Amino acid sequence: NGNLYTLQLSLYAYLLEEYGYKCKNLFLLHNVLNEKGTEILKENKIEVNYLKKEIKNLLNFHELKNIILK
Question: What average pLDDT score do residues 39-61 get?
Fold first, then answer.
């Protein structure tokens, strides 16, 4: 359903923003290939939400977990 890829893409966008880049839109590309896997028959471009708040929460949780375990 793409949720994991959306989180992954959001993490990349967040990291890029930390280095001064600005991310406007996030897209997942889904390619439908022929049976041999050698030719793209159809390309689906799916716009996804930037889950910045969720990424910040995940990173804060990870940081807190590391502090507690030390």
Answer: 95
* Residue 18: predicted pLDDT: 94
CB of 41 within 8 A of CB of 32? yes
Q: Where are the alpha helices (DSSP H) in 3-51?
A: 3-18
Mean pLDDT value of segment 52-70: 84
Backbone φ and ψ for 58, nearest 5 degrees, come out as -60, -45
Contacts by residues 58-66 (CB-CB < 8 Å, ≥ 24 positions apart): 58/7, 58/11, 59/14
> What 3-state class would DSSP assign to 13?
helix
Q: Is-contact 40 32, C-beta < 8 A? A: yes
Instruction: Name the nearest CA neighbour of 7 among 54, 60, 59, 62.
Output: 54
Name residue 31's amino acid: N
